[in-house]
Amino acid sequence: MIVTSDQVNKNLEEKCQVLVIGSGAGGGAIAAELAEAGVDVLILEEGGYYTSKDFNSNPAQMIPMLYRDAGTSVIVGSPSIIFSEGCCVGGSTVINGGMCWRAPEKVLKRWQTEFGLNGITARAMEPFYEKVEKIINVAPQTPESLSKAEMLVHKAATKLGYLIRRDRRNQLNCTGEGLCVFGCPTDRKRSVLVTYIPKALAAGARLYADCKAMKITAKDGRANGAVAHIIDRKTKKKKHTLKISAQLVITSCGAIQTPSLLLASKLGNAFKQVGKNFLCHPNVKVVGIFDDEIRYWAGVHQGHQIHEFLEEGMIFALGGVHPSLVSLSMPGYGKRNLELMELWNHMIVGGALIDDTTCGHVSRLPWGAAMAFYQIDDVEYERMLRAVALMSEIMFTAGARKVLLPFFQLQEISSMDEIRKIFQYKIKKAEIETLTVHAFGTARMCADPSRGVVNQWGEVNEVSKLFVIDSGIIPTSLGVNPQETIMALATRSGQFILENKQKFIS
Amino acid sequence: MPRNMSRCTARILRALIQTLKPRKPDFDPPIEDYLMEIADNFMAALPSHMKILLPLGLYLLEFGTIIFVPTVVPFSKLSLEKRDKYLKGWSESKIPLRRDLIKGLKAICMIGYYAHPEVMKHIGYNLDQHLRKINVAGIDQPPSVACSEEAAQYFRNLDKEGKWGTTDGLPGKAREYSEG
Predict the structure, then answer these.
(1) How far, in Å, CA of A406 to CA of A331, rounded?
(2) Confidence of residue B171 (pLDDT cuts 50, 70, 90)
(3) First to last CA, chain B
(4) Assign residue A268 a region: left if phi > 0, alpha if psi is -120 to 50, beta otherwise?
(5) Average pLDDT, chain B
(6) Would you state the pLDDT for residue A409?
(7) Contact call for residues A419 and A389 (beta carbons, < 8 A)
């Protein structure tokens, strides 16, 4: 059963065994895990409920519909980082590129040594990853779904001797429409919206869309429900109130919204760790301009990743997106912008994901909004310059005649020789254009309660019957796309709750 | 008529859109009203703090002419040529906040502009044609038409030669976990 705001015309009260707040990678996965075991689950989702019939290629319609804050979210710093997050049933899995990687073993080892998470070993995680991969259909792309740009970059990386890996994505017979970021219009991308949510609903779970949790309620150190607002989809204003009483509460709102909700509820923050340790994989991108027609957008969003520099904290990939979004990173406006965009079919857009070496924090502002703050440090700055230089090298090797750079002072280079300018120009941090779609760490797992918010199962330290299951519990930067790890951790915690049903759902 | 912003905000935004709008003497579609409508829809979807900050930013731009031109004539009343010069000063400013404001406002204009059918056609983004070409089979069948036959052939050959690489889920050079 799915209830949307237009179906509600009065204040409501609900009861359930488990309340899951958020329906993305974490919330969707744990809701299905519990519901299928016979648990009475109620899911709240702030965003609207849409299906592939509602999705189209028009960003002016899709971004306000599917993205948090109509895509205007920013992580404050110098430079500020543009942050995109889904806000709809299925969460960010509806609008992400669908890349699926397991956590690198060295990352899991770090979790053990630095955070005492001894139960989360690579081997111990394997069955959970396998289960997730089966449900969301993780598979490599077929040759038919790949664009000419993928071929050129693959050839260039091979020529340079760089390790290039085939992406595995949650997709079924992907044809390469390249519309992942606006919601897959054919359901070939197997997001949570078309996998875990239908499973949970089929098992009897109830879902309220357009419903924003305002506060988790608790008594005597035990969570017992939540108060939520039913939001009018058009005006985004409160329409009615929904009070839920639950035996167990799971918050899965993501690494920015979950700390805000915990702070609003005054829960789990005895050691002042909620919202701290914010990590975000800052990204930089370059645009190669080629003489030949490429039509890089005619193919899957991303088919390969260059992992040669993974150990150094960088991975590179192509990112097929709409011209509206690419134009934002083009220098200037007016005539200059149009002249560059007229080369649209001669472009390849490449991006680098940078492994965090510092951390920021998330605050709850006086009017209730969550705001993330992050200042890139010198190591990340060096990595960004190096990543841009290496991606430029790849573009020129692939045949580019010009590469547009994400720097305010140095906007383009025209040959391999000019790559050195990237290091000579003394580019300031504030002059780098950065963006991201990942966020972690703000409710991190740690065996020592004074250094984290939750234990290794996602259970909040000082509050019983309250779990956090989303990217916020990931204690360190992953260095790779996180959705599969979030789902695997959710599956693991779901099984833990079921194994201890007497304790949590009595 | 804008529904989600004041008349004054709409006046400044329209002047801004006219200035930012990508155009050339031989290509300048009259789509300002369409862009205004999109901007208006975006305003409705903004979070509450942005509903205050965005108009505030527009007013800064409007009356910043007093300091940065300097003239008592506000931005929206300047000629297109002078507005262009004035905006250039903001977008190339050494103060990040001034640059960031233009970047944010540019987003509101560009997202609608490059999604307009006439503009997409002009830059050669024929997405519908691509979708018609590739979506010939049902979801239960693998793709039968290549997005790029040249690329598909290249990857088929690599696959045949066993040179395309593994498809295990471990990133980097790892092929399997080293420990139990």
Answers:
(1) 9
(2) confident
(3) 66
(4) left
(5) 91
(6) 87
(7) yes
Q: Each residue of B2-36: b (16+ CB within 10 Å) or e?
A: bebbeeebbbbbbbbbbbbbbbeeeeeeebeebbb
Domain ranges of chain B: 7-123, 136-180
**Best mutation site among A137, A171, A338, A346 for testing chain B: the one with the most B CBs within 10 Å?**
A338
Contact A333 B134 (CB under 8 A): no
Q: Say yes or no for a CB contact (<8 Å) between A143 and B146.
A: yes
Nearest CA in chain A to B22: A334
Question: Residues 6 or more apart from A83 whose CB is under 8 A from it?
Answer: A73, A74, A75, A256, A280, A372, A435, A436, A437, A439
Dump pLDDT digits (tens) for B49-98.
Answer: 888 999 999 999 999 999 999 999 999 999 999 999 999 999 989 888 88
Helix (H, G, I), strand (E, B) or coil at A435: strand
Chain B residue numbers with beta carbons less than 8 Å from the beta carbon of A72 are: 46-47, 50, 104, 107
The ranges assigned to domains in chain A are: 2-71+84-137+181-271+442-504, 142-171+283-355+377-431
Strands A238-251 and A466-468: parallel
Contact A41, A34 (CB under 8 A): yes
The confidence score (pLDDT) of residue A268 equals 96
Residue range B43-53: mean pLDDT, rounded: 87
| End-to-end CA gap in chain A | 24
Judged by DSSP in three states, A136 sits in: coil
pTM: 0.96
The CATH architecture assigned to A142-171+283-355+377-431 reads 2-Layer Sandwich (3.30)
Does A365 sit within 8 Å of B139, measured CB to CB?
Answer: no
Cβ neighbours of B95 in A, within 8 Å? none
Any idea what the Cα angle at residue B102 is, between residues B98 and B106, rounded to 5°?
170
| Contact by Cβ (8 Å): A254, A67 | no
The superfamily CATH assigns to domain A2-71+84-137+181-271+442-504 is FAD/NAD(P)-binding domain (3.50.50.60)
- pLDDT score of B180 more than 70: no
Closest-CA residue to B178 (of A162, A485, A190, A121)? A121
For residue A67, give the DSSP letter: B
Instruction: Express each pLDDT in A60-83 by its tens digit.
Output: 999 999 999 999 899 999 999 999
> Contact at 8 Å (CB) between A267 and A378?
no
Look up residue A34 and give its amino acid: L
| Alpha-carbon gap: B157 to the closest alpha carbon of chain A (Å) | 10
The predicted structure's pLDDT at residue A81:
95
Residues A327-371: pLDDT tens digits? 988 888 999 999 999 999 999 999 999 999 999 999 999 999 999
A82: how many CB neighbours lie within 10 A of its CB? 21
